[in-house]
Amino acid sequence: MTINEKLEKLREKMEKYNLDCYLEHNVDPHQSEYVADRWKTREWLSGFTGSVGTLVVTSKKSALWADGRYYIQAEKELNGSEIKLQKKGLEKTSKVHEWLSKNLKNNAKIGLNGKTYSEKYVSNLKKNITLEDIEFITRYDIVDELWKDRPEIPRNKAFIHPPEYAGKTRAQKIKNIRKKMKEKKCSHLIISTLDDIAWTLNIRGNDIKFNPYIISYLLIENDNISFYVLEEKIDKKIKKQLEKDNISLKNYSKIVKDLQKLSKKDKVWYSPETTNMWIVSSISEEANKYQKRVPTKLMKAKKNKKELKNLKNCQIKDGIAMVKFLIWLEETIKEREIGEVEAAQKVNEFRKRQKYFIEPSFSPISAYKENAAMMHYHAKEENQSFLKNKSFYLLDSGGQYMDGTTDITRTIPMGVLSREEKFHYTLTLKGHINLANSKFLYGATGSNLDVLSRKPLWEHNLDYKCGTGHGVGYLMGVHEGPQNISRTPNKIKLEEGMIVTIEPGIYIEGSHGIRIENDYVIVKDKKNNSDQFMKFKNMTYCPIDTQPIIKDLLTEEEIKWLNDFHSKVFDKLAKHLNEEERTWLKKKTKKL
């Protein structure tokens, strides 16, 4: 079926169920950013493959909201369909609730799959729609009725992430969680987010590509813990370990029945932001509810000493892989053109050779020239570009290792560059350094600091339509909250031990895209009386190409930062390389 044919089939079902509108997105029952193929429902229905985006369909119209990372990509992928792109974040673009208020009438019935929409999303939408007597119908999964060859729930085996990597035992983590529950006088804690479950239990899985999770729910009580999962995923050895900590295995969907049994003496803690409507509606009406972010979010975000020590070694390995890739790229392009797909495969090959490597942390963004203007471009064999001896090649990639998760972007000159390309590269570097070299008062959030990275660009009327940085997990998702660096207001303080990326960029449609990204850990700086200051400590060891830099545009302080950075890169990596590789690295890290 074509996209338009799928939409007409959807409308037939909407009419059958007396729905005036239907919403669809690529989200699973656990509110994951990246999902298993089974839950790529918006992608199947619309053709848009971005990780984030909402599709709204009425009897006459359809619209899709995508953020600045995906404007160019969405326009291409929606071309030929009836779906109208709504560029989220632009002043002229209506928000979903505004669009619904204009295109629906009073007493409208809005359909969505309650298993994939959080309680907070639905309540906010209902509150903001300016029509009267709107009703949300959450019991229909219409796409499931239309998608005849829809993939099943993954059934891959789980594996243990032992304390020598995790830094704390399962029992220690559970004890700390129960302490928080006791403070809030809660008898039950529902954890539905897969990264929090993986962190709590020191278990990882292979259910979602690039994200080492196992699809499950967790219900923590004062004395017992129920782990809701397809039991075939858990082998006898893991089951035995879990039983030692009073953790019982139960069928994945049995959580509903257990929540229905709760009584008025029970107080249930769950996060409205990440718990789906199906789960929330299952909680007994007699039970009391405590609706706040689950405590594991911040516990997980602040890496312990063992994790940080391991991650340092992990980043060195990742840097070795990147250096070997960059040498291969530089030598190979002298002999022949290189496809974007081949380059992406090659960087993954170099990572696979490193100790404790498991898988990439995401599908590499391997983008040449104008393709790099699409922030989350994905090269395919049938439509890829081939690298030549000119312009920029952007590679955003990372790895999942037993001892950490990495994320790095380098923009590489392939040959002759225009003055504009060099200018944009230098501004991007200035933006990166300006934030990375900053000190800030404890209590600051990422949204307080975001402007530091944009300032050098804003001075030349340039900007990027996305955040500046995100949290990074530890053998977890490459995007991890609750911390981030963005213009969007965020109340989460940047705490000691949190990992964040810094990745400003300039994206010129039809021409080029530039991004420079490192991972940083938040550490304490000096204390002035009662004021504790913080700073960013670099975790990424890979040279930043100096060839495109217009040196006159850099301050002495910026040059010093770059020289110091390159000195550390050489010190960390040189002893792990052969003589030829060391010579290359020496050249790439020489003082500017």
From TrEMBL:
Domain of life, source organism: Bacteria
Record GO cellular component, one term: cytoplasm
Domain Peptidase M24 C-terminal: 532-592
Sequence ranges assigned to domain Peptidase M24 in this UniProt record: 310-523
Domain Creatinase N-terminal: start-end pairs: 7-134
Similarity comment text for this entry: Belongs to the peptidase M24B family.
Protein name per UniProt: Aminopeptidase P family protein
